[in-house]
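User: I'm putting together a teaching handout on how sequence relates to shape, and I'd like one worked example. Could you take Fermitin family homolog 1 isoform X1 from Tursiops truncatus, show the sequence you're using, and then write out its predicted structure as C-alpha cells right after it?

Assistant: Happy to. First the sequence, then the C-alpha cells directly below it.
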Amino acid sequence: MLSSSDFASASWELVIQVDHPSEEEQKDITLRVSGDLHIGGVMLKLVEQINIAQDWSDFALWWEQKHCWLLKTHWTLDKCGVQADAKLLFTPQHKMLRLRLPNVKTVRLRVSFSAVVFRAVSDICRALNIRRAEEVSLLKPSGEYFKKKKRKEKNNKEPIIEDILSLECSPTNSGPPVSPGLYSRTMTPTYDPINGTPASSTMTWFSDSPLTEQNCSILAFSQPPQSPEALADMYQPRSLVDKAKLNAGWLDSSRSLMEQGIQEDEQLLLRFKYYTFFDLNPKYDAVRINQLYEQARWAILLEEIDCTEEEMLIFAALQYHISKLSLSTEIQDFTNESEVDEVEAALSNLEVTLEGGKADNTLEDITDIPKLADNLRLFRPKKLILKAFKQYWFVFKDTSIAYFKNKELEQGEPVEKLNLRGCEVVPDVNVAGRKFGIKLLIPVADGMNEVYLRCDHESQYAQWMAACILASKGKTMADSSYQPEVLNILSFLRMKNRNSASQVASGLENMDMNPECFVSPRCAKKHKSKQLAARILEAHQNVAQMPLVEAKLQFIQAWQSLPEFGLTYYLVRFKGSKKDDILGVSYNRLIRIDAATGIPITTWRFTNMKQWNVNWEIRQVAIEFDQNVSIAFTCLSADCKVVHEYIGGYIFLSTRSKDQNETLDEDLFHKLTGGQE
C-alpha cells in the first residue's frame, strides 16, 4: 500500500475558478490531480464535483498566467506545464460581444472567445449574412474614437441609451466554426438586385436565422442621415498621423479574442479591413453592399479620405438619393416576385454582358497590340518655373508612354519614354473648369519623378487615365478590364457635370433636405445652407433615376476612384533614417510618404517583392524586392505584427478565384500573415 507521503508526491491540489452563468460570483473548486491526468479528465472531475445538471459542452479551461486556452483535451497536465500554482478558469468559450458595424449600428451577439479571430469573424459574418468574410476584421477603437462623444455626455443631463440590435440566438453559439469560403448559391439568401429586399424564394431562410426580416432591413438598408451636430461630435482625423492612430487597433487574426485581452460584452468595430472587394453581387450581397456603402460614406464625411469639393457634392447627391429611396414605403414593402421576373432579369443581364463585349473585331484585338496616340500637353514641375504645359505627340503602348515633338517624328527617337509600371496615378480634374489632368508619380532610384499630362476632353481623358491605371498595375490595354475602367471614369465625370438648375430652383422652397448631413463639417462651414442644398440638388439631377442598389454601387465605385482609396497608414521609422515617415499599405503596393507634407517619396509593388519577414526581438519588418532593393522599418503607431498581417493578407487575397464554392485555405492565410518561421 502507498504511504500518505507517496500519495502526496504523486498527486497535488489544483484550484479552479468556475465562471458559472447562474451565479454572480465565481466559485473556487479544489481538485486533487496528478501530472499524468489529461485536460479532459480534469474537466470531467470538475463537473462531477460541481454537481449541477446542465450542458457544460461549451466550457473550457483558461490559464490566466500563460494567457492561453487549454483546448487539447488529450494532453496531460505535465505536457501542458500545469502545476499547483496555476490559476485556471472554467468558463464558456462563447461570450457576448457588442459589434459596431460600418453603419454605426451596434449588434450584440454570441461569439467564440477561444477560436482564432479569423474564424470568429467568419462566424460573425455568417450570422450577419456578409459573404467574403476574409475581407472583414475586428478593430479595437483607440481612446480618441469615443473621446468627443464622452465629452458631450458629461454636459447632457439625460443618459444616452445606445440602440443595440440583439442577435443572441446567433448560429455562432453552437457547433463547429464554419469555413469562411463555404458560401454557395444554395446556402446564401438571395436579394432583389434592384432594391436589396430579400427575395421571396429565400424568406424561409430568415425564419431559421437570428437575422429576421426586420433585422435584415436594418443591416441591408441605409439608416437616416445623422444630424450635423452628431456628425461634428464624431472623431475626425486631422493629419496622416491621426489616420495612422485609427489603424493601430486591428486584432491579430491568428490569436483568439481572450488571448488579446478582449472582455465579455466589450465593444469592437467590425470593418472591411482589406480594400479588395471580391465578387460583389447584388443578388447575394445586399447586407455586404450596404455596409460597404456605409463605411465609404463615413470615410468621406469624417474626412478619413480626402476628396475635392466637386467630388464631395457628388457623394452628397448620391447619399441624398439613397436616403430618399431607403425611406420610401415602396422599398420597405417586401413584395412576392414571380419566377418569370428572375428569368427576365437574368436574360437582360446576359444581354448587357454580351453587348458589352462588342466582338466585331475580335481577331484584330488578338493580333494587334492596343495603342493610344494623340496630342497631349505635358508639364514637369521644376523650381522657379511657372506651370506651363507644352504640347507633344504621345504614344501609349504596353505599359509605357513615349512622347515626340510632333506626329511626323513618331518613327524616330522619342524625347523621353516613361515606364508606368509601379507608378502612382492621381486624377487632376475639374469638370466645371474643363480641366482634365493626370498626375503621374514615377518611381526612380532616389524617389519619385512628377509628370503632369493634360487632356482636351472627357473621352480622351477616360482612355488615357484608364491606360495609366492599368499600366501602373503592370497590365496593358489588351486586358479585359480596360473598357470597363474607361466606362467607370466616364460615368463618374458625367456625375460631376452640372445640369441646368431650372428644375432645382423651383424645388428649393419645399425641399426636404438638411444639406449639412451629407457633407463633411469642414465643407458645410464654407457654404450657406441654401447654397449647399442647391448645389447638392443640382448634382442630384444626374443620379435621380438610379435604383437603390445601383446608387450604392456607384457610391462605392466613386470612392474606389479617389487617389487615396485603399491606403492604410502607419507611422514608421525606416532603417537609417533620422525622422519618422508614414507608410501607406495598399492592396498592391507600399508607399513611403513624408509625414509633414503628405507627399509620396517612394513606391514598392508587391509584384516585385521576393520575401518579407519580421525580426521579433527588435520588432522590425524587413522586405526584399527585385533588383537588390531592400527596406526595413520599425512601426511606431502600432505593433509590427499588424503591418505584417496587412501585407500577407493582401497577398493571400490575391490568390482567390471566381469559384464561389471554393473553400479558403486558412492554413495559407496564417502562414502568410503569422510571421512565424
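A couple of points you could highlight for students: The first helix runs from residue 4 to 10. The chain is about 35% helix and 20% strand.
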